[in-house]
Design a protein that fits this description.
By secondary structure, the chain is an all-alpha fold. It is elongated, with a radius of gyration of 20 Å.
Length: 192
């Protein structure tokens, strides 16, 4: 019932006062129902119109998560790269960098992932994505075999975000780095 009301509103009032909110809710509905084509049709219209609005962060989150969940990494990278070029100074830039970084990390594009996460952490240190991006930046450094940098970044992550559940994983990476360098005692310290 509410869905039909939303659809009717979108059709009759494409520039209506509540179109942004209704569009977002309809997109969420489509996403939850697995109607991806319909979801992305609304989402891709929504971002250019509302990229300066706080609500757009939710749409970017939904888009990024949908593409990651569906393993459509190239689609995410292409779309969000375009959005970064067009809206890189808008409030959604941190989210675009985060999801692009994840897609690059998962596909083994470690240099690009590092650049995305580094830019996010450097420019948007108070972003809700910054903490996780700090950890993933260290993984990207590890993936591109810059082990000294990875070691520094994992250690900094642990110092900065002590208590984060990812600190255990960061310690494990530090153990692997030390073990690979022949520092068994230090490796065991991190594994403990």
């Amino acid at each position: 019932e509410m869905f039909k009301l939303g659809q009717t509103y979108m059709e009759k009032f494409p520039k209506g006062r509540y179109i942004k909110d209704v569009s977002l809710q309809i997109a969420i509905y489509y996403n939850e129902k697995g109607m991806k084509d319909e979801f992305f049709a609304i989402a891709k219209e929504f971002v250019p119109k509302y990229h300066k609005d706080k609500s757009c962060e939710s749409m970017i989150y939904l888009m990024g998560k949908a593409w990651i969940d569906d393993q459509k990494y190239d689609e995410l990278k292409v779309c969000f790269k375009g959005y970064l070029a067009d809206y890189g100074a808008s409030p959604i830039a941190d989210a675009l960098l985060y999801w692009s970084g994840l897609a690059n990390l998962v596909t083994g594009s470690f240099d690009n992932a590092f650049k995305d996460f580094d830019r996010l952490v450097s420019k948007f240190s108070t972003s809700p994505y910054a903490e996780d991006a700090t950890y993933r930046r260290a993984i990207a450094a590890y993936g591109k075999q810059d082990l000294n940098l990875a070691q520094d970044l994992f250690a900094k992550f642990i110092d900065t975000y002590m208590g984060n559940e990812l600190c255990g994983e960061a310690e494990f990476f530090l153990g692997d780095i030390n073990l690979g360098s022949g520092y068994v005692k230090e490796a065991l310290h991190h594994y403990a």
